[in-house]
Inverse folding.
């Protein structure tokens, strides 16, 4: 328990160095409220090998209290969260690639969202064009009507002895005047749109240039330089386009004036011809009707051309969205290839990997926004076929837009499409140790004991500095085999570069790890007295310090040497040790 002399001593050391961290992990050095840190009244301190106290020269520690690993082993998610820091420390190049991949995926999803936004706008335009074409009528039928009117004009000309050339000229003149009048109406509408614009009053108030990927992927200094340049360019370009709007306004005003002059001149130059034929009401009506047909046919042709252009752009967006989806998938696959090929030999027994996929929560979130009750190309047994959506995003968008794939009430079609097409698999890290796995999407195959060992490995591998390592009875959370095979070799290696203070009852840890100094704690009692009567006394020395036990010695610690104390406490004494050796019957 934490009230033991060994654990208390370790807790005091840890608390002297890092009060905030220690108080966050354990309430105090012993059991019960009387042993909480805020009730400790006596002084204690730590001195570093530079001769200064911790207050003068603050240091750091890695402190693992008793049962800490066991508690961590029960929280699988917390262990999973510790995988990434160790992985990134061991593989810094992979960390850079991982962060770049995440940034690129975010940029791709933003582009997909923007493309869907434009796709819906273009689809709205196509709908408007279809409605316009429906209102304009059938082109072939209009052409037949036009030909029929031309036949009537021919008959009317013959009947009234009208000149064919004059009729042709009159038709051309009235057609030109009609076209000019249409353009004047269009200019009036455009002038209304920019009526407030002048050299003093700008149409555009602000301009923001966005980059993909974002500037955050660049070094800070370069980011600031580019931001300054962009701000200058934004101001310059904003000024230019506002000048362009003013210039266009002046241009169409001038165009309107010139068109009116042309119409007046046309009427003046052809006044006799116009008056002559306008007297013939029937002819006037026929020519007027033909001009309307000519204008309608032109509008149909222009609308069809515009619709084809929009449809071409729409097809490009379909291709772009599919390309972005494929690129996103490729980035994740490249990341997996990268970690699989990375040199992980320094981890010694741990192998990191990556899994990617959808968790139930994120997939369910988007699925509940669409109608999964009715059958569609993208719904199967009440579930969204996300693979089919990605294979053919164009068909999915068309189905959403047209209503073939219904969305549930309260949801916007475009927003649902953006969310589904931007839906990205989670990238989760995995770790394997001795054939068992933790992390990813599946349940861990590691036992609680192995998870505790794994947690310890992560804690130790995460810290690559040389500050002291304080561990309190790790054998409580680990089996003896794991202690000997994993912890002992680690301690032997790490003690070359950092101080390790360990509390333990395990002979493998104390003796097997070749401890340079052993501290034996004794709690005062009837059968193990401290000569001065203090609750705890300590004896320190190396394993080489040996002294035969003095049976009549009044002080338990002084009665024998470090080696004898270690054998008695850790192995139950010489006799117990020899008896176990005989029981095992190992042959040399």
């Amino acid at each position: 328990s934490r009230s033991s002399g060994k654990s208390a001593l370790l807790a005091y050391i840890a608390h002297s160095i890092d009060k905030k961290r220690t108080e966050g992990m354990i309430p105090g050095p012993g059991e019960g409220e009387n042993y909480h840190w805020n009730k400790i009244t006596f002084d204690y301190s730590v001195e570093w090998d530079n001769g200064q106290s911790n207050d003068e020269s603050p240091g750091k520690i890695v402190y693992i209290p008793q049962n800490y690993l066991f508690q961590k082993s029960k929280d699988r998610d917390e262990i999973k969260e510790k995988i990434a820091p160790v992985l990134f420390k061991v593989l810094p190049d992979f960390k850079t690639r991982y962060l770049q991949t995440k940034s690129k995926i975010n940029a791709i999803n933003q582009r997909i969202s923007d493309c869907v936004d434009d796709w819906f706008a273009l689809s709205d335009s196509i709908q408007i064009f279809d409605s316009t074409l429906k209102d304009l009528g059938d082109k072939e039928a209009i052409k037949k009507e036009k030909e029929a009117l031309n036949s009537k004009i021919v008959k009317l000309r013959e009947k009234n002895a009208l000149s064919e050339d004059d009729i042709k000229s009159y038709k051309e003149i009235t057609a030109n005047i009609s076209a000019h009048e249409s353009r004047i109406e269009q200019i009036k509408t455009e002038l209304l749109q920019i009526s407030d614009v002048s050299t003093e009053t700008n149409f555009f108030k602000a301009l923001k240039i966005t980059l993909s990927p974002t500037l955050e992927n660049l070094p800070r200094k370069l980011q600031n330089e580019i931001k300054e340049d962009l701000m200058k360019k934004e101001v310059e370009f904003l000024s230019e386009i506002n000048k362009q709007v003013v210039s266009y306004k002046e241009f169409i005003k001038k165009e309107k004036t010139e068109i009116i002059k042309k119409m007046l001149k046309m009427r003046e130059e052809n006044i006799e011809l116009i008056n002559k034929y306008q007297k013939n009401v029937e002819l006037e009506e026929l020519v007027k009707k033909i001009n309307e047909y000519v204008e309608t046919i032109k509008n149909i042709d222009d609308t069809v051309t515009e619709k084809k252009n929009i449809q071409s752009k729409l097809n490009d967006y379909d291709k772009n969205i599919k390309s972005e989806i494929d690129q996103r998938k490729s980035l994740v696959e490249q990341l997996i290839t990268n970690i699989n090929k990375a040199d992980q030999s320094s981890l010694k027994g741990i192998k990191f990997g990556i899994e990617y996929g959808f968790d139930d929560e994120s997939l369910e979130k988007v699925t509940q926004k669409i109608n999964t009750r009715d059958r569609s190309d993208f719904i199967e047994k009440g579930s969204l076929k996300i693979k089919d959506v990605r294979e053919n995003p164009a068909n999915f968008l068309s189905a959403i837009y047209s209503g073939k794939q219904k969305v549930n009430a309260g949801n916007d079609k475009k927003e649902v499409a953006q969310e589904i097409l931007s839906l990205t698999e989670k990238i989760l890290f995995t770790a394997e140790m001795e054939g068992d796995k933790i992390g990813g999407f599946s349940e861990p195959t590691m036992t609680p004991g192995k998870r505790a060992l794994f947690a310890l490995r992560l804690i130790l591998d995460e810290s690559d500095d040389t500050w002291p390592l304080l561990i309190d009875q790790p054998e409580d959370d680990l089996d003896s085999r794991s202690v000997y095979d994993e912890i002992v070799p680690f301690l032997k290696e790490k003690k070359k570069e950092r101080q390790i203070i360990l509390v333990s009852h395990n002979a493998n840890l104390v003796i097997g790890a070749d401890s340079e100094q052993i501290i034996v704690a004794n709690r005062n009692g009837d059968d193990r007295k401290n000569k001065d009567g203090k609750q705890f006394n300590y004896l320190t020395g190396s394993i080489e310090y040996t002294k035969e036990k003095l049976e009549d010695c009044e002080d338990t610690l002084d009665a024998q040497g470090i080696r004898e104390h270690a054998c008695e406490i850790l192995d139950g004494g010489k006799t117990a040790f020899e008896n176990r050796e005989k029981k095992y019957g190992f042959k040399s």
